[in-house]
Amino acid sequence: MFHKNKRLVLRLALAGALLTAFGSPQAQSAQPTYPSKPIKFVVPVPAGGAADVMARMIATHLQTTWGQPVVVDNKPGAGSSVGMAVVAKAAPDGYTIGMGNVAANAINPAVRPKAFPYDPVKDFAAVTMVGITPLILVVNPQKVSARTVPEFIAYLKAHPGQLSYGSSGAGSALHVGMELFLHSSGTSMVHVGYKGSAPMLTDLLGGQIDAAMDAAATSWPQVQSGKLRALGVSTAQRVFFAPDVPPIAQSVKGFEMNPWHGVMAPAGTPRVVIDKLATEIQAFLRLPDTEAKLRERGVVRVGSSATEFAKTLSDEVAFYKKLVADTGIEAEE
């Protein structure tokens, strides 16, 4: 079943089982002329976030290693679909790549199937999954007394629909993550959507909303300061920056969400080019200094093979399509 296969792949990645990438015979025989001109690296989110940092680290390494400019081009908008549409429509020659993510390549196509500008699987060639940015279930301690996930669930069941949670917008990863939690735990809350995570966090800290399934990199500093309380993490294992916070899955059977980011190219890009990109990026991700810098941004390094990333992508699309159908999640058009 896709659900089990998907979780197995991501658990292996999260456990640190990076695939050894010595390169296939195809990769080793790749045309020596690639790259012979600048590469455009499309990042579908604004500059400064974890995905942008990952892309710029990779771009700098490729440029230094290959001697050709690798230009990062930030094209945010419409849940990352604006930038990834550019990648999907680009010439399949290896000179346009993009930093795909779970929102642009799995969640949004499920939420907006009729209005989406590309097929999340058929229009892309997977290169490598770079990393995962865990979500963390947080509450305002002045509004919610629960200190554990079971206590929180018990309170929600005793007060159905009386608490509210915020997200960075309907159909966003933060929205879908909390809806998955509510669906899996048999509870309900009122959703309040915001235009971004920053205003959502402001209202959570101010007590206008009670809880959120937020990006750990954003909320964890607030947890450390005591302004928010962390109840659980979205990944199947504990994460390095919050070793005392248990996985939600320990209390909610079937819950797991791994917001991922990965390098993609347009469908039809020659396999020798894909393999050359994948091999070089994987080698870079294995460097201790690279992992240290990713950890600073709350990123769990992965570095999967192109084949495994393609399998995960297909499984993710199927998983979120079913989740949207089961929960009735909608996004404003």
Describe the overall structure.
- The chain has 333 residues and is of the alpha/beta class.
- The protein has two domains: 2-133 and 259-327, Bordetella uptake gene, domain 1 (D-Maltodextrin-Binding Protein, domain 2, 3-Layer(aba) Sandwich), CATH 3.40.190; 135-250, Periplasmic binding protein-like II (D-Maltodextrin-Binding Protein, domain 2).
- The chain is built from twelve helices and eleven strands.
- The strands form two sheets. Strands 2-1-3-10-4-11 form a six-stranded mixed sheet, with helices on both faces. A five-stranded mixed sheet has the order 7-6-8-5-9.
- β6 (164-167), α7 (173-185) and β7 form a beta-alpha-beta unit.
- The chain is globular.
Q: Any descriptors?
A:
single chain, 333 residues, alpha/beta, D-Maltodextrin-Binding Protein, domain 2, 2 domains, six-stranded mixed sheet, five-stranded mixed sheet, 12 helices, 11 strands, 42% helix, globular, disordered N terminus
Strand order of the largest sheet: 2-1-3-10-4-11
**How many helix segments?**
12
Query: What sort of overall outline do the alpha carbons produce when their principal axes are compared?
Result: globular
Poorly predicted regions: 1-5, 15-31
Question: What is the level-2 CATH architecture name of the largest domain?
Answer: 3-Layer(aba) Sandwich
DSSP E strands, number:
11
Approximately how much beta-strand content do the residues carry?
15-25%
CATH fold topology of the largest domain: D-Maltodextrin-Binding Protein, domain 2
The H/E string reads HHEHEHEHEEHEHEHEHEEHHEH
Considering the protein shown, what is the CATH homologous superfamily of the largest domain?
Answer: Bordetella uptake gene, domain 1
Distance linking N and C termini: 32 Å
Number of domains: 2
Give the structural class: alpha/beta
Fraction of helical residues = 40-55%
Oligomeric grouping of the chains: single chain
Average pLDDT works out at 88
Largest sheet at a glance?
A: 6 strands, mixed
